[in-house]
Amino acid sequence: MEYTLEKDEKLASIAKGIPNNAKYTSKDIQNEIIQTLADMVLFEVRKKYESADSAGFCLKSDGTRDRCNVGYLSVIIRFVRNSMPEEHLIGLLDLQQLDAEYITSEILLHLSDADYSADSILSQCYDGASVMSGVRGGVQALLQKRLDRYVPYIHCYNHQLHLVVVHAMQSEPCAKRFFSLSSSLYNFFHHHYMLNKHDAPCLNWRLEIRWTSHYEVTRCTVDNQEQILSILSEMTEDDDAAVDLCTEASGLLCQIKRHHFFEIGKFLVRVLGVLKPENAILQSQSVDLCSASEVLSAALDSLKNIREDDCWVVSSPAVDESHPTKRRRTMSKYLGQSIVLSTLGHRDSGDPTISPPSVSEKIPAQHP
Which of 22, 45, 256, 270 has a C-alpha 20 to 30 A away from that of 285? Predict the structure, then answer.
């Protein structure tokens, strides 16, 4: 209420004549004000929908949890108005169950309460979780069964991008080790002794649910390279610190130098930085499916160009011609009349492309 009074001059003038005991801070009054504001927003969204180019709309939905681990489901409609796509949040459902049947019923019930006809649903867009995308028992399949018609389902492109990046970072051992060390560095520099004794760098915590968190963590870590190395070196010789803290600093410093930590980080910053503009575009309300497809194609081309960049080419060491080559292997005289069925895989120094025959089994030659 106090925040609103600072912005609304009319309400501030009215508040001067309100009795002093009318604080408007009780939970019932606060909830009533919030509900009134929500109804006003929904009324404006409804007016925009009524002036849309057509009555059809796309249904979008996604779930999340709050601090108390309570599940919520957003309900969003996307329609075309004045030849431009618009999308609006029309509900945040408190989920008592997490099965597809219950979620489908709650979505359809909320659309009905908000005066939106389910018959106007042209398509549906969710994440790739089986409860939403399942072809038999998922929400998208049950919704089509309830409406008794085909309603195309689209897996959110931005969510696909998130899954690809997270999976790629976990599949590559170097990247996986980098982010594990980054988490260890975050925990180390947030120790109360470190916060009080040193001007610790402000490192970010990696959130698994957002792939952009990987980019922010990597960029922040690389930008603070000198400070991180300096503090870790000081901590290894800090007599005032606890032994386990000094040991942890020594171990982190050893791991960072051993596994080329910051070199890998600089590479990841460049790769993930290519995808950051695409992430912003895919989250735009005005982007359409064709534009999203073009954006992803451009991202793939950019990644391919990085793969072919000359800066990643490592020159091979020159061959020392003075070093004597190995002697050429010769066939045993006892195998002169045998037929070779397989090889042992070694190569001759004379011709590296041809493997000389070796014997795993010999069959005597048939003589007339």
Answer: 270
DSSP 333: G
Asked whether 49 and 116 are in contact (CB, 8 A), the reply is: yes
Q: What is the pLDDT of residues 152-183, one digit of tens each?
A: 998 887 788 778 888 888 888 888 888 888 88
Helix axes 157-171, 261-282, angle to 10 degrees: 170
For 49-86, give the DSSP string.
HHTSSSS-EEEEEEEEE-TT--EEEEEEEEEEETTEEE
How confident is the model at residue 317, as a pLDDT?
45
- Please provide the CATH number assigned to the domain covering 52-155: 3.30.420
In a 13 Å sphere around the CA of 31, the CA atoms on its Cβ side amount to 3
Residue 49: what pLDDT?
A: 92
Query: What residues pair up with 79 in beta bridges, in sequence order?
Result: 86
CB 207 within 8 A of CB 186: no
Answer whether 48's CB lies under 8 Å from 86's CB.
yes
Structure token pair of residue 113: 């309460």
CA distance 283 to 276: 11
Residue length of the chain: 368
Question: Where do the structural domains in the chain lie, given as residue ranges?
Answer: 1-51, 52-155, 162-308
| Close Cβ partners of 269 (under 8 Å, ≥ 6 residues apart) | 215, 218, 219, 222
Which of 63, 50, 62, 59 has its CA nearest to residue 119? 59
Element (H, E) at 94: strand 84-94
Over residues 81-121, the pLDDT tens digits come to 888 888 899 999 888 888 889 999 999 999 998 889 888 99
Question: Quick one: which H or E segment has residue 130?
Answer: helix 130-133
Q: Are 50 and 62 in contact (CB under 8 A)?
A: no
For the cut 90, the answer to whether the pLDDT of residue 347 exceeds it is no
